[in-house]
């Protein structure tokens, strides 16, 4: 009887994903959230059903292949990915030209496919310079070189890259879990998670490639191959820039003595940083011109001072700012919260003289959590980073957040974006409440060490 329930649960899960991938529209929020919640429930049942881990890993990848021929519906970003790949293939630097400017000039041919990409990437993408780092650009370039003006073929190539990255995450993630003496089944919290399946495989967001390099970096770090670890971290940063926030946390990890700021610690840390910087210089050299810094900084600064979506603490402070001054204080609040995040990371860096890999994983999870709780913009796929880091800890609050973050899709209407602040409030009240209860269970002395 139990075997048939497992089989029926997997078939139902396949049908749910098919429905989301091929039938559902983003504006049908309640149908989307119900389907997403059902997928979560079925995935959790299968996780707890006693199926062998190797079979569960295989089933998780079979679920991903359901989306192979689907056109992403929940995000427009993939049109910009293909656009950047197209520019690279034409010898045009995507860091230097706005899509809007290119379409208004005669720099590129305005064929049907180019117009399709431009029209569907959205106003936000069309009016900002590309900030996708070099490894992402190389993948987009290869995708377009293969797919050319065939939209579906471009999508399939990008999808296969993401699936290959997840295979790498599984291979190195299992080794890390074994080293940390954590259950290997925790890898399923990531690869079987509906957030990862939908935002990575379906919507084609590049976070999993970054996380593959991050897993590679962690693996070589614990095997004491620190130079290869630096190479892996450089690959992660050259895929998505977020892992830059973890650089200060590596400083106490390199301390093998009781005295802080000892010569060996400083030299090893500087060697690590030097290798990382050299690798980043090499990857960016393929796209480098003096204008890149100013134009990339202009777009990145908007993330902290202009963009708003699914925020928590920022929205509360924004409300106070409106009450106090009568207008949106995002530039001041966004910059201030960024500084607070940096101070919190530095606090984690110096709270202990030396840390092991387990503490490093915990600190990275806390840093990423703080970053997103204080951020002005938290799209669902952003949470793949802290969700991945949570695999290598005993903390489970990211599972709840990876479910409730889909409430943010209530903001997408047929025309434009209008957020439902009640649902966002529910999301963060529950998540912060779960975090508080989970931290409260820890011994106060080991609060930042377990």
TrEMBL record:
UniProt keyword Transmembrane helix present: yes
Subcellular location: Membrane
Segments traversing the membrane: 7-22, 28-46, 53-71, 151-174, 195-221, 227-254, 266-287, 332-351, 363-382, 388-409, 421-439
Top-level taxon of the source organism: Bacteria
Record's keyword annotation contains Transmembrane helix: yes
Mode of membrane association: Multi-pass membrane protein
Chief localization: membrane
Keywords: Membrane, Transmembrane, Transmembrane helix
Matching InterPro entries: GPCR_2_secretin-like
Protein name: Glycosyltransferase ArnT-like protein
Upper lineage: Bacteria, Pseudomonadati, Bacteroidota, Flavobacteriia, Flavobacteriales
